[in-house]
From TrEMBL:
GO cellular component: cytoplasm
Family annotation (Gene3D superfamilies): NAD(P)-binding Rossmann-like Domain (3.40.50.720), ornithine cyclodeaminase, domain 1 (3.30.1780.10)
Protein name: Ornithine cyclodeaminase
Domain of life per record: Bacteria
InterPro entries according to UniProt: NAD(P)-bd_dom_sf, ODC_Mu_crystall, ODC_N
Signal peptide: none
Length: 320
């Protein structure tokens, strides 16, 4: 029998209407499978050419359901000059037992949904449940995916926005207004952050990036998710954070440079989900989730999307 490969474009993936709660459940399932030795992931492979490009690949597999996902991604700061997204990616999904190909999936969609999903998993345990004000530093794809995810699990009333690109900032603010949120654009990053309960930073990485965010601006009880490798944050300000969780201790140990001072790290997301690592301990504790991206997250989202697409007969079937 010849394999049938399902191609899932951005539009077909959007039509699946996956909720943040769906994504959180899929991610958490894989963390529990990991500690039961039924799911595995390899540290991400990274290439950084001297021209500022960032090339990355992730690999993860699980026995139930039997999926293996590989994602290849390129971040090129020059892409916007040619009216291309800064980041482009592709995910391939295989049967983890037979190795037969199952799907080719738009990697940009997977990256946006899984990154916000990982943040949501962390926020459930590290943010105050009564959080109502969110701040966004950076207004691109990740900001919008995080806005949609966070509004599903918190009763947000107001968002503060700081972004250097007028077009992306204005588009982001329009989307937030359409969701019924009060939106304030600020002149400085400090203005955006200082009264926020939830902070999302998604600053585009580049060799020219100079850290400009100070953790000492965070109010007591704030939670920040740093989707940008903490690159825009001043390293000397990080000790003000009483609880810092990263995505994966094993992966971090294999990286040439740490995200932050390892002495400040309390644990990783697997430990947080499975109870090995404690979440928020007090109302006033300042907490943070700092992450590179996790292959299990890509697998969780890609596998969930594939199963839902099969149920709904979405995507384009390719046969040899």
């Amino acid at each position: 029998m010849l394999p049938v490969i399902r191609y899932l474009s951005h539009s077909s993936l959007q039509s699946l209407q996956l909720t943040t709660h769906d994504v959180i459940a899929s991610i958490e399932h894989l963390f529990f499978a990991k500690i039961q030795q039924q799911a595995w992931s390899a540290p991400k492979a990274v290439i950084t050419p001297p021209d500022g490009r960032y090339m990355m690949a992730t690999l993860a597999a699980v026995d139930d359901p039997p999926f293996l996902a590989v994602k290849a991604l390129v971040l090129n700061p020059e892409n916007p000059k040619y009216k291309l997204a800064s980041i482009n990616a592709l995910v391939t999904l295989l049967d983890s037992r037979s190795g037969l190909p199952l799907a080719i999936i738009d990697g940009n969609w997977v990256t946006a949904i899984r990154t916000a999903g990982l943040s949501a998993v962390a926020a459930k345990r590290l943010a105050r449940p009564d959080a109502s004000i969110a701040a966004f530093i950076g207004c691109g794809v990740q900001a919008l995916s995080h806005l949609r995810a966070l509004t599903e699990i918190f009763q947000l009333k107001k968002i503060n926005v700081f972004g250097r690109g007028a077009a992306s900032r204005d588009a982001f603010c329009r989307s937030a207004n359409e969701m019924g949120l009060s939106v304030i654009t600020t002149q400085t990053a400090q203005e955006a952050i200082q009264d926020a309960d939830l902070i999302v930073t998604s600053v585009t990485l580049s060799p020219q990036l100079v850290p400009f965010l100070d953790a000492r601006w965070l109010k007591p009880g704030a939670f920040v998710t740093m989707t940008d490798l903490a690159a825009p944050w001043l390293g000397e300000s990080m000790p003000v954070l009483e609880r810092i969780i990263i995505d994966d201790l094993e992966q971090e140990a294999n990286m040439p440079e740490p995200l932050i001072n390892p002495a400040l790290v309390h644990g990783d997301l697997t430990g947080l989900v499975t109870g090995k690592t404690a979440g928020r301990q007090s109302e006033n504790e300042r907490t943070a989730f700092v992450f590179r991206g996790l292959a299990l997250g890509d697998l969780a989202v890609a596998g969930l999307a594939y199963r839902r697409a099969c149920e709904q007969s979405q995507g384009t079937l390719i046969t040899s």
